[in-house]
Specification:
Blueprint lengths: L1 H11 L30 H14 L3 H18 L6 E5 L2 E5 L1 H4 L3 H8 L9 E3 L9 H9 L13 H11 L2 H13 L6 H10 L3 H14 L6 H6 L2 H9 L9 H16 L7 H16 L18 H4 L11 H10 L4 H20 L10 H7 L1 E7 L5 E3 L9 E7 L2 E7 L14 E13 L5 E6 L3 E6 L3 E6 L9 E8 L8 H10 L1
Parallel strand pairs: 1-3
Antiparallel strand pairs: 1-2, 4-12, 5-6, 6-7, 7-11, 8-9, 8-10, 8-12
Length: 501
C-alpha cells in the first residue's frame, strides 16, 4: 500500500503543466537565478518565486484529500494495476490485495492456507439477503478512501456487507449513523438489524426511543411494525413513558393488536380506536360468553404482551373497569385475582394502618408501581390529579414557576373517593421530565430517581426545581408511584411462586 501511495504523492507535487512551457517564464534552456538575487524588473525570477511560494503555502490537507480522491478514482473505480478480481451477485470488481487485507475476511483468506490465497479470481458467496450489489460497492470502496457517506435508507444493507467482510471501522460508522437517524420509520428496522449484527449500543438506543415515544407520539405506522416480542419488552418496562394513566396503555395495546390482525387498515390515528372497538365487538359475537378474545385462536399469540399490563391501576377507576369488562379481551380469571389483591390492599390501608412504603424496594417499584404522565403544551400554571382510587391518598401535582410540587390533599378540596386521615402517609415515587425534537429524539431529560416522601395532612413538598434551560415545551412528565407497602409473603406463597415459575 505504501509504494502505491508514494507514487501517487510524487505525481501530485510535480509542477503544474503549462508553467515554463511558453518559453517566457520557465527555466527550460537556462539556469534559474537564486531567490533574492534578482534586481528590479527581473520578472522571470519573480514568477519562479511566486510559484514556489504557492507550492509552499498549499494546505497539506488539500493535498491529502486530492491524493485520496486520486486513489479512489484510479485504483478502485478504474481498477488500474489490479491484481485480483472479486465476483459476487453477478458483478465484478478489479481490486488490489494490499487494500483488501484491511478486511478481516480477506486478510485471513490471503494469509492462510486457503486455496483462494493464490487465486486471481475469487467468487464470493453472499448468504445474507440484506447484502446487495450497491452495498458491496460502497464496502469495497471504503477500503480506498477515508470518508464514506452513508444514507440512512442504505445503512442496514451496508452494515450487513461490513459485517460479512469484517470491516470494523465501517461497522462502527454504520452504528453511529443508525443512532443519529432513529425515527418512527427506522426504529424497528434498526432494532432488528442491531440484534442480528450484534450492535448492542444501537439496540439499546432504539429501545430507549421506543420507551419514550410509544405513548407520547403514537403512530399507526409504528403500531404495525412492532413485533410481539418487542411490544412485550416495552409494556413490561417501568421506564415506559406513559401519558395519562395505565388505562391508556391498555387502549394502545388494543389498537396495536387490531393492526397486527388487520395490517391492511390505513386510516388516520384518530379513527383507529373506533375501528378497533368495532372489529373486536364483531368477534365477541362469535365466541361463547365465558371466552375472552385473548383465549381465542386469533388472540392467543398476544397473551404474553397483555400479561404485563398493570391491571390493578386500571380497575381502580370505574369507567376504565367498565370498559375492560365490556371489551372482554382479557381473561376473567386475570381480573378476578386482581380485584381480590386490591381489596386486601385497601383493607390493610384502612384497618391495618398501612401508611405506605417504608423503604425503597427497587424491584417492587419497577414491577408494580403505578405508571402515569402528563403533557404540558406550553409554560404556565398547572394543577392536576390522576384518576382512580389510591388507597385514601389524594395526590395533587402542581407545576408553577419552574417548580413541581406534590401535595397530600385531605380537607381543603373536595375529591372523589375516600380520603385517609392518618397523621402521616408515605409514598414511593420517581418523577421524570423529557423534551423531544420532531423525530422523537430526546433533547433533554431529568429525573428524581426513586424516593420515599412522607407527607402530613395537606402538606406539600417541592419535588423538583427546574433549571430554565430544561424548559423546552412541550414538556412531558412521567411518574411512577407506589401508595401501599408490598404485601409480606408467607412461606407458602413463596412455594407457590416457585411452582408457577
Amino acid at each position: 500500500m505504501g509504494s502505491l501511495s508514494s507514487r501517487v504523492l510524487r505525481r501530485r507535487v510535480a509542477p503544474p503543466r503549462g508553467e515554463g512551457a511558453d518559453g517566457d517564464r520557465g527555466s527550460r534552456g537556462g539556469k534559474r537565478k537564486r531567490c533574492g538575487s534578482e534586481g528590479p524588473g527581473e520578472s522571470d525570477s519573480d514568477g519562479d518565486g511566486e510559484r514556489e511560494e504557492r507550492l509552499l503555502n498549499t494546505p497539506r490537507r488539500k493535498k491529502l484529500k486530492s491524493t485520496s480522491k486520486y486513489i479512489y478514482q484510479t485504483l478502485f473505480l478504474n481498477g488500474e494495476n489490479s491484481d485480483i478480481k472479486i465476483c459476487a451477485l453477478g458483478e465484478e470488481w478489479n481490486l488490489h490485495k494490499i487494500y483488501l487485507c484491511q478486511s478481516g475476511y480477506f486478510s485471513s483468506m490471503f494469509s492462510g492456507s486457503w486455496r483462494e490465497s493464490s487465486m486471481d479470481i475469487i467468487e464470493l458467496e453472499i448468504p445474507d439477503q440484506n447484502i446487495d450489489v450497491e452495498a458491496l460497492q460502497v464496502a469495497f470502496g471504503s477500503l480506498y478512501r477515508d470518508d464514506v457517506l452513508i444514507k440512512p435508507s442504505r445503512v442496514v444493507a451496508l452494515l450487513a456487507a461490513a459485517c460479512m467482510l469484517q470491516l470494523d471501522g465501517l461497522i462502527q460508522q454504520c452504528g453511529e449513523t443508525m443512532k443519529e437517524t432513529i425515527n418512527v420509520k427506522t426504529v424497528c428496522g434498526y432494532y432488528n438489524s442491531a440484534g442480528t449484527y450484534g450492535l448492542d449500543s444501537v439496540k439499546k438506543k432504539c429501545l430507549e426511543w421506543l420507551l419514550n415515544n410509544l405513548m407520547t407520539h403514537q403512530s399507526v405506522e409504528l403500531f404495525k411494525e412492532l413485533s410481539i416480542n418487542l411490544m412485550k419488552q416495552l409494556i413490561s418496562s417501568s421506564n415506559l413513558f406513559v401519558m395519562q394513566v395505565e388505562m391508556d396503555v391498555y387502549t394502545a395495546l388494543k389498537k396495536w393488536m387490531f393492526l397486527q390482525l388487520v395490517p391492511s387498515w390505513n386510516g388516520p390515528l384518530k379513527q383507529l380506536l373506533a375501528e378497533a372497538d368495532a372489529w373486536f365487538s364483531k368477534r365477541r359475537k362469535d365466541f361463547e360468553d365465558d371466552i375472552a378474545f385473548l383465549e381465542s385462536e386469533q388472540g392467543r399469540a398476544f397473551l404474553t404482551v397483555f400479561k404485563h399490563l398493570r391491571l390493578q391501576y386500571i380497575i381502580s377507576d370505574l369507567a376504565s373497569a367498565s370498559i375492560i369488562e365490556r371489551d372482554s379481551l382479557v381473561p376473567s380469571e386475570w381480573l378476578s385475582s386482581v380485584y381480590k389483591l386490591q381489596w386486601f390492599a385497601m383493607l390493610r390501608a384502612e384497618q391495618d394502618n398501612d401508611i405506605g412504603p417504608q423503604e425503597i424496594n427497587k424491584e417492587e417499584l419497577e414491577g408494580n408501581s403505578m405508571r402515569c404522565g402528563r403533557k404540558l403544551a406550553k409554560d404556565g400554571d398547572y394543577c392536576w390529579r390522576w384518576t382512580g382510587f389510591n388507597f385514601g391518598f389524594d395526590l395533587l401535582v402542581t407545576y408553577t414557576n419552574r417548580y413541581i410540587i406534590f401535595k397530600r390533599n385531605t380537607l381543603n378540596q373536595p375529591c372523589s373517593g375516600s380520603v385517609s386521615l392518618q397523621p402521616q402517609r408515605n409514598i414511593a415515587f420517581r418523577l421524570r421530565l423529557a423534551s423531544f425534537d420532531s423525530s422523537g429524539k430526546l433533547i433533554c431529560s431529568r429525573t428524581t430517581g426513586y424516593q420515599i416522601l412522607t407527607l402530613e395532612k395537606d402538606q406539600e413538598q417541592v419535588v423538583m426545581n427546574l433549571d430554565s434551560r430544561l424548559l423546552i415545551f412541550p414538556l412531558y412528565i412521567c411518574c411512577n408511584f407506589l401508595y401501599t407497602s408490598p404485601e409480606k409473603k408467607t412461606e407458602s406463597d413463596g412455594l407457590l411462586d416457585n411452582q408457577e415459575n
